[in-house]
Design brief:
With 115 residues, the protein is of the alpha+beta class. It has one domain. It is 29% helix and 25% strand. It has 4 helices and 4 strands; from the N terminus they run H-H-E-H-H-E-E-E. It has a 4-stranded mixed beta sheet with strand order 1-4-3-2. The protein is globular, with a radius of gyration of 14 Å. The N and C termini lie far apart (32 Å).
């Protein structure tokens, strides 16, 4: 772990790493389903802006305080996004999502119907 994540409570360390991926598009991979990309009016810049601005976290969609799930409505379509934590080889779940040295983050954006 780095000095910043070591000084934070575990959930907040994970949340900040998730925020970095969601807001800055760094520190992981962002995946879009075919359904999202084929949505009439799809605009990747608008999607990136809305994802970065997302702040509707509450006890229902963020019970652990990791800011790893959300929903958006764009182009008349309901979208969901979720951050998953994998080992560096993307084969198994990460042993420590708070440690970017051992974790590969993947943020997937999908149609609500694809959940």
């Amino acid at each position: 772990m780095n000095a910043v994540t070591e000084a934070l409570p575990r959930a907040e360390a994970i949340a900040r790493l998730n925020d970095q991926l969601r807001k800055e598009q760094t520190g992981g991979t962002i995946m879009l389903t075919r359904g999202v990309m084929e949505t009439p009016g799809f605009n990747p810049s608008e999607l990136a802006e809305r994802l970065a601005a997302y702040d509707a976290f509450d006890a229902d969609n963020d019970p652990h305080g990791e800011r790893d799930f959300g929903d958006l409505s764009l182009w008349g379509t309901d979208l969901l996004w979720k951050v998953d934590y994998y080992d560096r080889g993307l084969r198994f779940g990460s042993d420590d999502p708070a440690d970017p040295a051992v974790t590969s983050r993947v943020l997937t954006i999908m149609l609500a119907g694809e959940w």
